[in-house]
Amino acid sequence: TIPPDELIPDEDSSYVDVGMVGILRALSFGDPLIIKGPTGVGKTKAVQEWAAQDGIPLIRGNCSSDTDRAALIGQFGMIGDEVVFTLGVLTLAIETANTIGACVLCLEEINTMRPDRHSALFSITDFRRRIESVELGKIFKLNPECKLWVVGTANPGYQGTVTLSPALDSRFNQIEMT
């Protein structure tokens, strides 16, 4: 387990804000958000700097065509002779928000995740604000007084990217960085 306060990123004194931190602050903890733009414009860095400045824990999930349910929800494994359940990024974000009171989950390059994996994100990005783990027989639910903001980044039109399913796309607001 990671102590939640260790998930708060450090501020980067060399970061040059082009206005994104203010935009993220204004939009924070509203509807889920996807930040689109070419590689290198600072999508992830802006999210990290906003979280650092505001003291918000940041969970980062690197999406790809190999992203599976275990990476998102969690999985059983062995530590010595003991069977343990390791949280995925979605369940870790909910548990962190419930422990600290707030958390941001940044799903990097969300548009590289295979469409058959999109449904795993539905219940965390809509009114339900929960994840069901059939493997564990547990529902990870965001406490009503806690805040979780799901932010994705996307590099549209790059090799290996996919169009988000209409059901997932409708759950996100979108902004573009150039």
Q: Main traits of this protein?
A:
single chain; 178 residues; alpha/beta; two-stranded antiparallel ribbon; 6 helices; 9 strands
Please summarize what this structure is.
By secondary structure, the chain is an alpha/beta fold.
Describe this structure in words.
This protein is of the alpha/beta class and 178 residues long. The chain contains six helices and nine strands; from the N terminus they run αβαβαββαβαβββαβ. The chain has helices at residues 20-27, 43-54, 69-72, 89-100, 122-125, 166-169, and strands at 33-36, 58-62, 74-79, 82-87, 102-108, 130-133, 138-141, 147-154, 173-176. Strands 2-5-8-1-9 form a five-stranded parallel sheet, with helices on both faces. A two-stranded antiparallel sheet has the order 3-4. A two-stranded antiparallel sheet has the order 6-7. Helix 1 crosses helix 2. The longest helix is centred in the N-terminal third of the chain and has 12 residues, at 43-54. The protein is globular and about 50 Å long. The mean pLDDT is 94.
